[in-house]
């Protein structure tokens, strides 16, 4: 069987309720479905070691060092296997322990979910079983405040009206109560229910479900009931304000909509790590080239020179195959020059990331007194990625806004009203403005009361049924809007009623009911289809609720039909101005339009209110049409839409409302700063378009002059053509506007600054996005994606509304994999944001009110949106600069280290003779030069934090991996080659004088190597000291301490005869060397000569760029940043910041 409409593509499944055969006389063959286990872990006990080792050795550096280690073990090489084996073992072990611990936490979380106890009805008995044991077809009982363990069809509710309320914060981020309905006319005792359910196969769309139930009674033809999303309770949602419900499991385990919307956690790699790998390949090529050159020249040299008497070959060497000998020589040279690849860099980088992440945790600016928590770092691997973000994808509800709607003002018949706290008027209204010739006038009292009745009746709000005790329990956790306006209402409510609160599917509905309450009309609740209102005169009015015409994103309005006590049938309708204005008499529109447009530009959520008197004949026809459409199995939504549109015509416009969804603290300033830093902000929300659009205006993402390009179901329905054709036309039209006709963007400037006159904003909804991403034909789909991406990338801001969680991830993935592979960041606070948080390069969770799913799955967690500004503009900027310098410096100092070793081979007959002692080879990267760069990479502030936050444009200077580009890499490589040549040939020039000591003795080869090594250690350390701009006592301690330790170690190592050494190569060599004045002179001269170009560069070069003027104007101000136009890594930092992290 297939369903009509869009659902026709989805095959169905048949479920036997309670595992009973239907009809009863037929044999029951249980269908096979997956169980209810949830698995989010990556490893098991058995596959952890092989799988983890495989993943780690996929990293090019780890694999390379493994090969070198094996070569050192197998082949007779100049250096010990310990020199490369020990650091490799350390890195592999630390990473394995870290990843194993993270996976153990996932196992623990899975176990908690799977072993959670639930009630299942079997043969009339209630039994408790683990959640993992639930099967499709089981009848599950859930009590208030419990979470649904799987996707259920609602069969029974403890509420008299057959409804239940749920919150879906963990699914779509909305913390408001949603109403769900039982299947009509079922047996009160589910033990005797005999029924089957036919429904679509599992699919991730949270808002879509089509099915039908066949109910068998006494061998009659089965009754058929249609099932929709209103009957489906989703796993992860919570039962609220309902004592208990019973439902039948239709989707379980990894087939639930929640699981289908979950993206598996993959290993994220930063752009810096990719740059390191690229540089590593270059140095690997240099290494192989050096080994090849030396191997070739060795055999050329041997062919021209006779075998020396002191180095005769053994018989075994003479019998060895020539090619095998050449290969082993090649490997020996590889091992000798192996130190050009900095194995210790990976250890230092890991330590820098791990220790650096504490600065985020310790930052007092991130501490939120409300929740008594600060920032949290879940993944330290991505610190530097915070300084490279190009696209930000943010959730709306709870992230940009507080999800706290407040009634601001209303407009009745063209007169604007605001609630005046100090107003002396009896009705509580205060007229603030209106048509110029009617200032301080009001609409008639009858119109006011009609408007307020509309606000009290046209909604799906329920009054919270709660005792004082239950209220206290739920206050902290439930999103229940307490009636905060009662204090203004002249005390006409009894104290018990002040206990009540409202629950609704949308917070703006609560705001409107509360707004009406402020002005004297109080909604008392719905009892047995009767809505009760307390009016201004303290009389209770009762209206019979006949039909609710639900809101949908295409109509963008909702209506109710009610019957008053006098028998009048009224239709009250509220909705967006664009959907109400065409349905009312046009002469009434202009009076309201001005106020609506003004409120919208102020960022308020505007709704228009209209009504209509229905005659008995009109109502009878509408009632029959609605009942028929609701029972339809095919094209149900389209048939209901047709009836709604037919009824909602020729209405009378009464007025409009303005509701504010309060923004998070400093949301607008944060967005402005992020856009100023060159980042593009996209809002991805499951909310309605109008609400989201208002928020974008309030945040400053859409400006007054922004032209909005809309690609939603509503625009696709216009024109009477097929959706596919309309989609094609709109994409081409918008592409022409935003891309083809737009002036070219200047390099390094985003469109919002280059095109000051005309900005574009793009709006798309979930249904339209599905069409773009999965068009019926493959070529069209690819073309649509490209057009869509190009349009979005040329717009200043993009709004995606009515998004399912998986669609949010699809959008992020689309941008992430687009041309140039821009760095993306996702930020959200609910479980519905987890997919996009996991998909983006950097995922940030907000410690909001909607559970901690987003925080658990994020890379970083912050208490409020405003903290994102400092996290990116200050911490991200500094982390990137520090680690970029660390990487370039490591490659530079290792090139300085190994180039003299390579040059030495030309003077020792290519005999693989080491220039440096084994102790120096091992200690160079581990002890002598590691701590200064680690301290630099943790503490350096090339520009102080206050300036970085004040000038957001500084962030653009480091965008697109600016400090790890090939130009700078070649500069550092050239510097390393220059220093290596100076070290080697400078010392060789000294050795041209045969007698360097007073007694006429000559220096040996170990003295030669020690002098080179001393110049090397001092030069690379002082180079870093010149580059340090932000000095702390720690920098002083490690820089001067490292040099002192080198001197001390050299005296100590050479001053004792070590029993475990075969050869005492350095015995008194260092002390002997320092006894020579010539050696002292050469060491000092060579250090100065090496650093001279760097010093001259700083002294002679004038500062350029936007901050040079600032520096002149604030002469002597140590806080002024140096010119960002000069590459940070090619200059010495002379001025220091006084700010200490």
Q: Number of helical runs?
A: 36
Number of strands: 35
| Mean pLDDT over the full residue set | 78
Q: Portion of residues in helices?
A: 40-55%
Q: Span between N and C termini? A: 66 Å
- Percent of residues in β-strands: 15-25%
Instruction: Characterize the overall form.
Output: elongated
The gyration radius over C-alpha positions equals 37 Å
Low-pLDDT runs of 5+ residues are: 1-10, 421-440, 467-499, 746-757, 1104-1141
Record the strand order, biggest sheet: 18-17-16-28-27-26-25-24-23-22
Question: Which class best fits the helix and strand makeup?
Answer: alpha+beta
Biggest beta-sheet profile? 10 strands, antiparallel
Describe the structure.
With 1141 residues, the chain is of the alpha+beta class. It is 43% helix and 17% strand. Among the domains are: 12-19 and 134-262, Calcium-transporting ATPase, cytoplasmic transduction domain A (Distorted Sandwich), CATH 2.70.150; 376-400 and 668-737 and 759-862, HAD superfamily/HAD-like (Rossmann fold), CATH 3.40.50; 402-420 and 446-465 and 499-661, Calcium-transporting ATPase, cytoplasmic domain N (3-Layer(aba) Sandwich), CATH 3.40.1110; 874-1099, no CATH class. The strands form six sheets. A ten-stranded antiparallel beta sheet has the order 18-17-16-28-27-26-25-24-23-22, sandwiched between helices. A nine-stranded mixed beta sheet has the order 14-35-34-33-15-29-32-31-30, with helices on both faces. β2 and β3 form a beta hairpin. It is elongated and about 120 Å long. Residues 1-10, 421-440, 467-499, 746-757 and 1104-1141 have low confidence and may be disordered.
